[in-house]
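Data availability (excerpt). All sequences and predicted token strings are deposited with the supplementary files. A representative entry, Aminotransferase, is shown inline so that the format can be inspected without opening the archive.
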Amino acid sequence: MAFLSDTLARVKPSPTIAVTNKANELKAEGRDVIGLGAGEPDFDTPQNVKDAAKRAIDAGKTKYTAVDGIPELKKAICAKFERENGLSYKPNQISVGTGGKQILYNALMATLNPGDEVIIPAPYWVSYPDMVLLAGGTPVPVVAGIETNFKLTAEALDAAITPKTKWFIFNSPSNPTGAGYTRDELKALTDVLMKHPHVWVMSDDMYEHLVFDDFEFCTPAQVEPGLYDRTLTCNGVSKAYAMTGWRIGYAAGPAALIKAMGTIQSQSTSNPCSISQYAALEGLTGPQDFLEGNKALFQRRRDLVVALLNEAEGIVCPKPEGAFYVYPDISGCIGKTSAKGTVISDDETFANALLEEEGVAVVFGAAFGLSPNFRVSYATSDEVLKEACGRIQRFCKGLV
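Structure token line:
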């Protein structure tokens, strides 16, 4: 009898975490490495949020809380959805978890049975398919390539839906591409979903506040009210509020689904960290003016990285609408040989050679379900980004 579960054979460790760990190991060995793999802001949590956490500690808010969130935080989340998205929810329709990932995982664990299919536009966040597999479902990747600016078309969505489809996972702006769907583009997708009442929608809105130029964010249940009763709208404080390590995610949806998610959480982690919940409460109810400044900072970095990568030989880098990632196409590099003799057969060998020869850590596109590409997180300083992109340009120039 094998000791480890057969379930482990269906999933793999996170490639993004693996890249970050590899970069850190090389740095520890004294190598000059620039890591562009981590998906987190490089600036600190707002001071008022940190102060709220300290007050919570001093006030003794260190005990167990309700399994899926303190009442005050649920109320603040309801207000956020009403204020920013025009969506009305009650506290019993809100779930708070230990990060956005747990929220998604709880929902999948609470709803999927063997044979259930989950449609996932590719490129996708690396965890979506593996969470579906862990929950016993079948991920169904549907390619949305560079020719559609990495956005799924209504025709492709419609063609992918079968009687076994239970969920459609939607992420805008996207990790890894930064692609954001306009209201019209999203309405085309929701029109398809309205024809298939057995399909539920899981909308991952984690990058809602990181949108650029004149782009206006919208979410499925907001665009199509007819989907309200079968949509789980997921969000969190990790990205916009620079609180990745605090581990607070949340979601709103039908009360029966939220209750089922709470049952899963009650037998796994129980409540999220009490101090983090009070910090998130301050984040959602305190001053929001810093969001615009952060957005402007990321937009400037986006423009810098897109311009520099498009100067690299063999690379085409579209300009995304949001998040803090770009997803360059390296078709022009495939089949060539690096300056130190590595044949670039795919995006994984490209990323490995780039790390070994130039000390730049990126995540290869196959990890996200679409090749040949790689992901750059530009959540770091202008100086670091200029140096990293210069090294990428030099690496590409050396390919023959």
